[in-house]
Amino acid sequence: MITLYDSPCTLPIKASSPNTWKARFVLNYKRLPYKTEWVAYHDIASVYTKHGLSAVCKRLDGEEFYYSLPVIYDSTTGKAIADSLQIAKYLDEQYPDTPRVFGASKANVDEGEGVRDEGVDVDVGVDEAILNKAEEFTNLTMSLFLPVFPLLFKQAYKHIEPASRPFFSSARLKDLAPFYSGPGLSSLDELKISEEQAIGAWKQLEVNLFKGLDARVQSPGNGKGEGEERLVGWCRGGDKPTFEDFVLGGMLIFVRIAYGEESAEWKGVSKWNEGKWGAFLDKLAPYQTVQ
Ligand SMILES: N[C@@H](CCC(=O)N[C@@H](CS)C(=O)NCC(=O)O)C(=O)O
Where is the GST N-terminal domain (predicted)? Predict the structure, then answer.
């Protein structure tokens, strides 16, 4: 059984963190049995200690390593892995008969859909170049969402359980520090964002997604066309989701959960580009369960 470590929020769904959603999407897509173990933000380090892991993620300023989730522990192999990209790689390699998120699976090859001849042993290792592309895509997506980070952090902060609030607030202020030129703040509550600034930030995200991703994600179409088929899995031109789809999905589901499905913010995002981003997340609906 696989354990997925995630930090809970106070909303009924409990799971809202974009990065842990990436790993959850992958586990759900692969239909691998797993359970979520909820760990308070200020306790994430204990997961690393328990499984003998070292911190692998650096803050946005590139200076400081920090303990981050997702982490998974696979009791079948006794292995623990940190970082969503490494988790996806591990799952692709360890469970080659499940649908791959970085390329054709053994199952696909067996079905004759793969890139190799039948009867030839399939190398289950994930290609370094594919991993690098996925990492580039992750960095691109993060940079596109950057203008709304202060808004997202403040919104997420509303749903953090009381015991984790001081830790979460100071961690997010560290993340924002390289991009924020105002006076030193001691809490996210002190970060004031005017209505005008908020409107400007959302507008910037709309433009960023249009310029940065629109061409890579096909239009929802009318249910008959190729557009609908290619709404996910665009990275290698396929019709199946890849890790990149779950990266974008992680950010979109974070906005939807943090603000709520009926919020002006989510309704706004979901309707941009003729409903492209809302339709995109809908397409990932089969993989949105929390186990
Ligand atoms: N690149 C990492 C990022 C992980 C990450 O930053 N996770 C956040 C939750 S969404 C976290 O654990 N933050 C803890 C902190 O900021 O101290 C991944 O995709 O796994």
Answer: 7-99
